């Protein structure tokens, strides 16, 4: 676990050096500063009955809001990021629509600079993560009909993390918070843990008949936004967590990136990628990728 966190920290500090070389020299404004974007991505494919190349007609849409509201005065800083995303797809050969995206995430970090001109601050952070709608497992019954079984819904699971630490803040576009004493609460609906035959820990680490599970560990949270080239930007969010009390070597990873290729003030091409590793949910990486032409609106 220590090796993993050390490698992660080294990687982030390399990025920090790059960010420092390419950051804007203009001094940040004090007080509240806010900025956000709304995006809507649309994908559609259609095939007629005579099409011989194979394929299934489908339609998909993804909407998202990414909003930052930050405060800075003297040695105090308070950085907040709200991410709201939801997407659906429907194919002609499936009875049900399926989610392509579902995310509610809030990150908040308060910092107090160690010295007036330092990039390092004493910090306290809070993170919350859940989803909007029900999630399902899909399968077929004995007659070959598609069926679905509810697996998740709003606040099942819900992840809440908080703890003191140390914050490196280059500017609003690059922050890294290291919290070696992090409390983590996982909440679920006990309808999932009271089913017949349920085994302790099967549902996001929660024991049979319980609706929550508390962990204590270390976390690293990083946000890095930068410009790749003219009209091409990349926003990154990385969350790492290690549970001291159980399998600390199995570091939970949640990494997401949004590459925005601007066409004009209203249209952009977007690539969204997310990778999650959480052995309490599934053994292996969960991967999500969305690419499409999007409506893009920037607000303050």
From TrEMBL:
In the UniProt record, the signal sequence range is 1-19
UniProt keyword list: Signal
Source species, domain of life: Bacteria
Q: Does the keyword Signal apply?
A: yes
Keyword Signal tagged: yes
**InterPro entries, from UniProt?**
DUF3078 (IPR021428)
Q: What is this protein called?
A: DUF3078 domain-containing protein
Q: Which organism is it from?
A: Nonlabens spongiae
